[in-house]
Amino acid sequence: MIYILDTADIDAIKHCNEYYPLAGVTTNPSIIAKEHTDFWDLVKEIREIIGDDKMLHVQTTQKTADKIIAEAELLRKELRGNFFVKIPISEEGLKATMELKKLGIGVTMTAIFTPAQALISAMAGADFVAPYVNRLDNIIGDGIEVVAEIVNQFKHYNLDCKVLAASFKTAEQVHKCASVGCHSVTVSADILKTVISHPMTDMAIAGFEKDWATVCDDRTILDFNQR
Asked: Residue 205 — φ and ψ, nearest 5°?
């Protein structure tokens, strides 16, 4: 499973990049807008934090293929490293994807809601497709089932495209995506922290600390001399 952070919050990126096995960061216009700051300064700072080796997915704001391609080329030039342009599924987006693959620019096709959209995106050359799990659940769909169908389609046709599940409300949704073979997820910092949390874990840790204190007081293993 590839874990990616879905935010443009600099503090959250710094923290999660230090403490979690992140493969990169994804953003979109809505996420960028929340930060109320200069676009280029923001995305370049994200690149500096995560380094060139980790993935940075930045969404285009253009609607026609030629302008999507121009924006993607500029983004790759400025952000360097392991870069993917995010493109919402559309006719223009598919046309741009086919051309961008010739230019060697990675593509993440986003706003995916059906397996059919995902399959045609992969055939156009997308490296990732991003189905929106919780948004499907909110309209009485089944986000996990859609992810599972996409995974199975890619396996059936032996496609290299990866499923990058997005739009999560709970850690359980992330777990279920993993259970159906989803290749990657992009989640908020809050969801990422919830993934490793459990009240029984807290109780177990408290028990370890209490038992240690009964015989060792405040000393740690580092306080004991090696034999």
From this structure: -65, -40
Q: Which residues contact 22 (CB under 8 A, 6 or more apart)?
A: 3, 4, 5, 16, 50, 54
Beta strand pairing call for 162-165 and 184-187: parallel
Sign of CA dihedral 142, 193, 83, 68: positive
Q: What is the pLDDT of residues 147-198, one digit of tens each?
A: 999 999 999 999 999 999 999 999 999 999 999 999 999 999 999 999 999 9
Question: In 3D, which of 41, 47, 37, 105 has the Cα closest to residue 74?
Answer: 105
What pTM value is reported for the model? 0.94
Count H helices, E strands: the chain? 11, 8
Could you tell me how many residues make up the chain?
A: 227
How does residue 19 score in pLDDT terms, banded at 50, 70 and 90?
very high
User: Furthest-apart CA pair in the chain: how many Å?
Assistant: 70
Among residues 207, 218, 156, the alpha carbon closest in space to that of 181 is found at 156
The pLDDT value given to residue 227: 61
CA-closest candidate to residue 62, choices 82, 90, 40: 90
Instruction: Select which of 14, 44, 86, 210 is catalytic.
Output: 86
Amino acid 90 reads S
86: annotated active-site residue? yes
DSSP code of 51? -
DSSP state of 192: H
The Cα–Cα gap between 170 and 214 comes to 38
